[in-house]
Amino acid sequence: MPHIVVVGAGIAGLAAAHALGRAASVTVVDGAQRIGGKLTTSVVAGVPVDAGAEAMLARSDEGVALAAEVGLAEEIVHPATSSASLLIGGRLCPIPRGTLMGVPADIEAVRAAGVLSDQAMGRLEEDPPGPPLGDDATVGSVIGGRLGREVVDRLVDPLLGGVYAGRADVLSLQATVPALARALRLRGSVVAAARAAVAAAPRREGPVFATLRSGLGSLPAAVARASGADFRLGLTVREVLRTEQGFRLIAGAVPAPSLLDADAVIIAVPAPKASRMLGVVAPHAAYELSRIEYASTALITLAYPRTAFPPGSGVLVPASEGRAVKALTFSSQKWEHLAGDIAIVRASIGRHGDASALQVDDDELAALAQLEIAAITGVSARPVEHRVTRWGGGLPQYAVGHLDRVRRIQTDVEQVPGLAVCGAAYEGVGVPACIRSGQLAAARVLADLAARDRLIGQEVRDNG
């Protein structure tokens, strides 16, 4: 059997290892002392709560399908409420229905939500047409140029910030809202394009989001068990080299490196780490990977005595509100299995290009979160316990030209048979997208190994 090394034990790498199945002997290597990457669960005030991603798209098949395949079908649950609010001028307004990443597709719904001033509503109703979209551009420049800054600041930026911890004035329209970009190539009107994109989306029944009753952080361990792979943790891979037989990975300390030989390699780590590993074997890909920037964030989880928070699943806070907190999740209201005598609230702090609020110790960060929760929600109770989880360089930023960059990376990697890359840096930061990325990487290296074996077999036959 071929030996395949997967570098990175986050959900993308684990999905790749699982997809390789019995077709190969698989070793998963990670510099961390645990598996799971940004999927992890720990206990706060006696309640298991996710410290990273806490939900996945249920309408993207890969996440719920993998959970079911590894024996967690009975654990899958859906939100008790999905309604959320925006903080606008210090007051809570409902997020308008019928938006596409905050871009309005239903003008009357935006009016009813009361999130825009009369002047901004007037411009939205005019929806001044522009030329069809050409080259890639930032979300902010396209939407702001057509509908005005208020739509960007109060609607689009908070939703993008919730997904990418980034800013509309930096993020690529084609990479982050591809359906809208496609529609804008045919229509000059933003609202009409958003309406067309929403209408063209596949109609699927059932809840939009899902998680696991034991926490989404329980998924990695189940996938790891089902994969049958061998795991080597606390071992950092520094470089990947090509050999006559396949690949050699140089890992561990420089004075006494560990060497791992493999027939194929899947790199499932963040772009900066992947760049350093691929400098020799795929230098053009390494250069492009080094250009992908990341945002640092912190998640502060607070446990309150039974407390009535505003209704709904949480609050998105526009940067224009001048607060450190960019999002609140009322976890005990969002997820029925977390409801009880303790009210769990998660506060997210940190945006791309602005990590100043993170430059304090954990207790100060928790105190800041508590003050802002009180100011936003009116809840003055003191939490009984808190947990601070820092994700330094945790979220890749899909800047203008990102999709072209990904194509250049993939093209260079494809020049090296048996090598593949996967993870959040490429074509989606959500859990299902990362799983899909890992599964595609597994299929790629297996196809390369099959082609190699056919070539060897043909040479043997030719040489009689």
Describe it.
The chain has 464 residues and is α+β, with helices and mostly antiparallel strands. Helices cover 38% and strands 23% of the residues. It is built from 17 helices and 22 strands. Strand 18 (314-316) and strand 19 (325-330) form a beta hairpin. Helix 8 (178-184) crosses helix 9 (190-200). The longest helix has 32 residues, at 431-462. The mean pLDDT is 95.
Mean pLDDT: 95
Number of helices: 17
- Provide the spatial order of strands within the biggest beta sheet: 8-7-18-19-20-17-21
What's the N-to-C terminus distance? 24 Å
Q: Please name the CATH architecture of the largest domain.
A: 3-Layer(bba) Sandwich
Categorize the overall geometry: globular
Classified by CATH, the class of the largest domain is Alpha Beta
Largest sheet report: 7 strands, mixed
Query: pLDDT below 50 for ≥5 consecutive residues: which ranges?
Result: none
Structural class, judged by helices and strands?
alpha+beta
Radius of gyration: 23 Å
CATH topology of the largest domain: FAD/NAD(P)-binding domain
DSSP strand tally? 22
CATH homologous group name of the largest domain: FAD/NAD(P)-binding domain
Helix fraction bin: 25-40%
Which key features would you list for this structure?
464 residues; FAD/NAD(P)-binding domain; globular; protoporphyrinogen ix oxidase, domain 3; seven-stranded mixed sheet; 3 domains; alpha+beta; five-stranded parallel sheet; Polyamine Oxidase, Chain A, domain 2; 23% strand
